[in-house]
Amino acid sequence: MYADLIKYFFVLFVVVEPVSLVPMFAALTVDESDKQRRRVALKATILSAVILVAFTLGGQWLLHNLGISVAAFKIGGGVLLLLLSIDMVFARRSGMRSTTVREQDEARDREDISVFPLAFPLIAGPGALATLVLIAGEVEGDHALLIGLIAIVLVLMVIVLALLMLSGLVMRVLGVTGANMVSRIFGVILVALAIQYLVDGIKTAFGLS
User: Fold this and answer.
1) Which of 45, 179, 184, 197 could form a disulfide with 161 if both were Cys (CB 3.0 to 4.6 A apart)?
2) At 139, phi and psi to the nearest 5?
3) Residue 45 in contact with residue 161, Cβ under 8 Å?
């Protein structure tokens, strides 16, 4: 059980990749005071936690009611994570793990960016949601693992909150180049995870396992 929980933590940490959120948070809150930054960071992480926990608890129910098999979702989730990992390796900005130019323009005009784009899609993005649904399928029926998974989500959100609160210090230590380097390393790991989900999904779908 503990080995599974450690694995789930590292998988989610790689997918959410809190370090890369810091430069985007700093850019979006460049004109805000320290007090406003803390308020935005706190609200965004709370909202993200609610979204992620909701998908953890209700993701499988949603798949069943939509008639989507676990195998199909593993294939789809694997493709999504593969695209996300490619963006991470090449430090490219896309709507999957960052905001588009039009979304950035819209965010500048918003007084509160904690919901959009910070909570979604930056923290609780498509990759994180898809990963949680896949993991929730693996722990289905094991209440202890499910509770552990929810605890992991909450711990991860605390880490995200701490990094956002300390964004000024993190940027001075790492800078944009350092953050991109961490993102590339995590991206390589995520490539392997995405391929594994694809392989598992194809095996299940075609009865090869």
Assistant:
1) 45
2) -100, 5
3) yes
